[in-house]
């Protein structure tokens, strides 16, 4: 899996870190996590899930039939959790570096 992760991929993994979810639940959770900035369409979501399953970061947890339709639940795998942890740490370091630079710029040269 390519890193850094694209934001939709990061948010899908983040959503699955809590509990197994089905497609519609993931679409709603990603929208909530992104404050509505990321609106996944079903085709985009299932393409991403297929890639994540192929990469071993996500697995099918279970399937159930609801109103005559198959509902597939996905879960984060251990390697998926490791990638999510590493990516979260990478972003945390970047935020820290940017915050430090911005603070220094506000204070002026030699005052940081």
Structure notes:
- With 112 residues, the protein is an alpha+beta fold.
- The protein has one domain (7-106): Orthogonal Bundle (Arc Repressor Mutant, subunit A).
- Helices cover 59% and strands 17% of the residues.
- The chain has helices at 7-18, 23-33, 42-54, 78-107; strands spanning 21-22, 58-66, 69-76.
- Strands 1-3-2 form a 3-stranded antiparallel beta sheet.
- Strand 2 (58-66) and strand 3 form a beta hairpin.
- Helix 1 crosses helix 2 and helix 1 crosses helix 4.
- The longest helix is centred in the C-terminal third of the chain and has 30 residues, at 78-107.
- It is elongated and about 65 Å long.
- Residues 12-84 form the Transcription regulator PadR N-terminal domain.
- It holds the Pfam family PadR.
């Amino acid at each position: 899996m390519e890193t850094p992760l694209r934001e939709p991929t990061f948010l899908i993994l983040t959503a699955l870190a809590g509990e197994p979810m089905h497609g519609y639940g993931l679409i709603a959770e990603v929208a909530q996590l992104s404050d509505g900035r990321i609106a996944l369409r079903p085709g985009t979501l299932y393409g991403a899930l297929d890639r994540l399953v192929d990469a071993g970061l996500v697995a099918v947890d279970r399937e159930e039939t609801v109103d005559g339709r198959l509902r597939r639940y996905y879960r984060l795998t251990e390697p998926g959790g490791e990638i999510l942890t590493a990516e979260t740490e990478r972003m945390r370091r970047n935020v820290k570096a940017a915050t430090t630079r911005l603070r220094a710029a506000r204070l002026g040269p030699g005052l940081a």
